[in-house]
Amino acid sequence: MSLSTSTPDEPVDRLRRLLRAGEWPVGAKIPNDAALAGILSASPTAVREAVRYLVHTGLLESLPGKGTFVRAVTELPGLVGEWVKDELTLHAIEAREALESYAVRLAADRITDQQIAELRSVLRAREVAGDAEAVASADVAFHRLIVRATGNSLMVEMYEGLDRERVFDFTVLPEISPEESLHSEHAELLDALADHDVAGSVRAVERLLAHVRIKVLRAQG
Asked: CA 137 to CA 115: how far, in whole Å?
């Protein structure tokens, strides 16, 4: 098919199919517009429009000066995120609690040694983070890795859609003390996962998320 006969929807559909097929994994940078034009058999203008559309739907994320990265492989995270924005903070926290409590059940049984090592690395970064933003970033990474350890792609997609500002702590805290950062609670959860202790992992995450609920609701009034 020549570039001139490509309809507006075709580059979007082709790019979406490539993302779903895992051509570029979540977190990876996609090729630039010129390279994508060749891959998608479309004009650079059509490619730019396709990328903008998929950024809007949540599959891609554009970072100025860095490029465009894969955020998800389906539109589900974007849809969940839009829905969560209209929900009460308490409802969003309850959704996180339900999803993550079951996720650790699966993760405790399925987690690999490599994933445990990755969690330990992220937890160390979390412990030495010097400000609320850095702690929040490491915290999101820690919990995201646990959900990915379930091997359940649908659960991962749903989790990605949660609004970080509503359901993760520390983003609303001006200062962080060792007690507020809940390092020991995170370490307890990681130890239970490393031991493949399903019941212990569930208890640990439920205690941790109970603290998070109190902190976020208190901070947001």
From this structure: 18
Q: What digits encode the pLDDT tens for the residues 78-95?
A: 655 555 555 556 777 888
> What are the extents of the domains in the chain?
11-73, 76-220
Q: What is the DSSP string of 187-217?
A: HHHHHHHHTT-HHHHHHHHHHHHHHHHHHHH
CATH of domain 76-220: 1.20.120.530
Kindly report the CATH number that applies to the domain delimited by 11-73.
1.10.10.10
Cα 118 to Cα 120: distance, rounded to the nearest angstrom: 5
pTM equals: 0.65
Beta bridge partners, 26, equal none
124 half-sphere exposure, CB direction, 13 A CA radius? 5
Tokens of 23: 């051509």
Under 8 Å between Cβ of 133 and 168: no
Place of tokens 């490539």: 18
Give the residue ranges of DSSP H helices in the chain. 9-20, 33-40, 44-57, 76-85, 89-110, 113-128, 132-148, 153-160, 164-167, 178-181, 183-194, 198-219
